[in-house]
Amino acid sequence: MKIYDIISDFKWGQVVYKEFGQFGPRLQELVQLVYVFKGHARISVDGHINDLPAGYATLLLPGRTEFFSFSTTEPTHHGWCEARAVHLDEAAFDALEALPFRVAMSDRMRMLDGMLIDLDKDRAAQSCNLQQSLAQCIFQEFLYCAGYQPGEQGNVQEHPAVRKAIAFMEVNYSSELDLEQVAAGCGVGGAHLIRLFKEFRGTTPVRYLWKVRSEAAAALLERTGLSAAEIAYKTGFANPAHFSRVFKNHYQVPPVRYRSQCWKAKEPSSRTDQSPVPIESFMSEFKG
């Protein structure tokens, strides 16, 4: 069973704290997402202090004592979405606990929260049902961005460092990255991360990064009119020649031929009636 199938009865909201604001201590009884739109939050969980800057979200688990302190230089605007956890067994709890403390908010998460809050104006029963679905989608999006992958029992079988590395790559693949940067973001050494990837993924972190970049490039080839060279630089490749070589290793055809095959596979009406997706909106959607 997937973790997001055992949470229900969602509640949500937004709040603004003034400079030097504080909240707590409190005993967390639910599964709660907290995300900061502006300002900064410092959260103590059972005495362990973590920072949550603007643009990031965190998942708080039941049974922990929490204390919040907010920015001393500006008001802090944050949102929250919480749920009851039904049958949150030890395996599911461990899976959630192994996720990174903070995850960059995706554009989809922001959009879902905006829709959720906007529907508060509508008191119709249908809107309440829709809001519950949107709240569950926010949890699903967070888990996706955090690198959660459900196993047969809803557990995450991979080492936490592997999941953190994958989540880091999927957010930052368009930037210049090397092994040590990815490893540092996971709290392990480069050599150790290589061993973990070989054990759990059968590949190396660098090769996995090229896979992520190739998948992003493939989506751009299919859905935009950008040149192969433009796509190469937008997805983190060193140059067009490197992009073509790596892409062909993954898809068995060069980038230009891949695009041609994708476009030919579409119905003529869908090719002529639709314009290429604007690159800015598409890149935000993909990096989610």
From TrEMBL:
Residues 163-261 form the HTH araC/xylS-type domain. InterPro entries: AraC_XylS_family_regulators, Homeodomain-like_sf, HTH-like, HTH_AraC, Tscrpt_reg_AraC-type_HTH. GO terms for molecular function: DNA-binding transcription factor activity; sequence-specific DNA binding. The keyword Cytoplasm applies. The keyword Thylakoid does not apply. Keywords: Cytoplasm, DNA-binding, Transcription, Transcription regulation. Pfam families: HTH_18. SMART domains: HTH_ARAC. This is HTH-type transcriptional activator Btr. It comes from Pontiella desulfatans. The gene is btr_8.
